[in-house]
Amino acid sequence: MSDRVDVAVIGAGHAGLNAVKEIRRVTDSYLLVNGGSLGTTCARVGCMPSKVAIHLGDIYAMRKHFQRYGIDGADSLRIDGASALEHIRDLRDTFVDLVLANTTDEMEDELVDGHARFIDAHTIEVGDRTIRARAFVIATGASTVVPADWRESFGDAILTVEDLFELESLPKSLAVIGLGPIGLELGQALRRLGVDVVGFESSTNLARLQDPIINQAAVEIVRREFPIWLGAPAQIERAEGGVRVRAADREQVVEKVLVAIGRRPNLAGLGLEGIGCLVDEHGVPLYDSRTLQIGRLPIFIAGDATGGVANLQIAAEQGRIAGYNACHEIHRHYERRTPMAIVFSDPNIASVGVPWSELDQSQVVFGQQRFGPVGRALILGQNRGLLHLYADRRTGVVLGGAMVGPRCEHLAHLLSWGVQQQMTVKEMLRMPFYHPVIEEALQDCLHGLEKKLDSLPPKPGWLERLFPGRGRRPAGAEASA
Ligand SMILES: Cc1cc2nc3c(=O)[nH]c(=O)nc-3n(C[C@H](O)[C@H](O)[C@H](O)COP(=O)(O)OP(=O)(O)OC[C@H]3O[C@@H](n4cnc5c(N)ncnc54)[C@H](O)[C@@H]3O)c2cc1C
Ligand SMILES: NC(=O)c1ccc[n+]([C@@H]2O[C@H](COP(=O)([O-])OP(=O)(O)OC[C@H]3O[C@@H](n4cnc5c(N)ncnc54)[C@H](O)[C@@H]3O)[C@@H](O)[C@H]2O)c1
């Protein structure tokens, strides 16, 4: 069977579905090819079921405060792991249904089931079907990296996010290998649901945190809840009663291992090397980071398949740009908004704006604020944590920050909106704040920064230099070429 269409999109995750939305504005002549389960990584195994697990863990962990609050009987509370897992699957199915209802359920012949492989820059094969298109969008996502011999040698003892939520019951003990966002979020959630968890991380950073002060604070907080061993790669071997995990001089025998050592773009089977794509050392084709076009080919790439920052909003936005560019001669540019990463551990961990590694430390003034004395944090019984802000020494413009603390998911948004608007410390302080709220931690931190900035000796030409450099166009606003 042979088809000829304007655009074919490969992959029905958020990137691919958003590409389709753009393409449909221009043409009905498109196909969406998806190999594997429909419903998106986010809804099936990613953002959403992991947040349900975190929520259940947080609720159950609250029992530890009950006695202090005058609530009796916490000792007799028990969690039924099987029911908790069933609830996660129930909600997961709801999220998947919501995605499908608005997207692929409405498609008929436009949806093609199978894995695509390029024959040439205008042709793919999907099973016994040949599809010719004027342009393609590759949005094939990514999958967990599992060392080749681990599955073979350790079978069911090895878990990834792809199978964790399918378990019928919770394991008694679990080693989480890799404490990036996935390992930390799920390791903590499972610990709170009663699993004996130990975490292994080869770097010295939790959740990819670059800011050393916030990393140190986060490590100290997480360690109060379960052991985390940092700084050496973990290896595993068979042991009586389960699997032995070793890292440097540490070892632990556990029933199961959750592998969370990173995700790799699903590009291997696409045959890209055969159609003249130059690829990097990870097999990702070289593409223009603004137009998302691969070389000069009529092929665009979006979402986790790019091997770049993996998050839902970026996948969706890149999908829209790739879809648009696949059916327009004049391309739109993808420009990343102010970087923001939030890890939904308790307390939340977040980084915003200029990453630590890119700061010119001699030009930055730093502000710190502990959550310890913040009224609302004390009321919530969640006052561990620290906020660290960075501002430009010369102009007072807020550059970003990192934080570990209660409800930092919201502080991170507030901060990123200020950074995107290129606001100064003083301008952010003129924004409204209420009481008693966690946002007062941000206000206090900004006051501290303001004091430091005001105490710096004035520099000649300070004001004149301030305005030309500041330009009021929000960074990252979509531009058309
Ligand atoms: C456990 C976990 C938690 C996460 N939590 C968050 C979070 O809290 N916040 C956040 O922003 N992000 C989070 N993410 C990341 C987020 O889920 C992803 O960045 C996003 O879903 C990627 O979307 P995508 O469209 O690029 O890929 P996907 O949704 O993976 O879609 C790719 C599609 O392509 C199909 N496919 C693959 N190969 C082929 C082929 N050869 N031919 C045809 N089809 C193919 C796949 O079956 C799939 O349907 C999390 C991820 C995980 C795993
Ligand atoms: N809240 C969120 O936004 C969220 C949540 C989950 C996932 N994600 C995204 O999903 C992607 C994948 O997340 P991830 O956590 O799987 O990957 P990651 O690459 O962010 O982290 C993997 C970690 O594993 C460590 N590691 C590698 N090999 C190891 C070994 N042998 N022993 C011990 N540690 C080892 C690495 O040093 C790294 O810290 C990320 O890009 C992330 O942004 C986002």
Q: Can you give a write-up of this model?
A:
The structure is a single chain. With 481 residues, the protein is α/β, with parallel strands linked by helices. It has 3 domains: 207 residues, FAD/NAD(P)-binding domain; 114 residues, FAD/NAD(P)-binding domain, CATH 3.50.50; 115 residues, FAD/NAD-linked reductase, C-terminal dimerisation domain (Enolase-like, domain 1), CATH 3.30.390. The chain contains 15 helices and 24 strands. Strand 19 and strand 20 form a beta hairpin. The protein is globular and about 70 Å long. The relative contact order is 0.12. The C terminus is likely disordered. Bound molecules: flavin-adenine dinucleotide and nicotinamide-adenine-dinucleotide (NAD). Its cofactor is FAD. GO terms for molecular function: flavin adenine dinucleotide binding; NAD(P)H dehydrogenase (quinone) activity.
List the main descriptive attributes of the protein structure presented here.
single chain; 481 residues; alpha/beta; FAD/NAD(P)-binding domain; Enolase-like, domain 1; 3 domains; 7-stranded mixed beta sheet; 5-stranded parallel beta sheet; 15 helices; 24 strands; globular; disordered C terminus; binds flavin-adenine dinucleotide; binds nicotinamide-adenine-dinucleotide
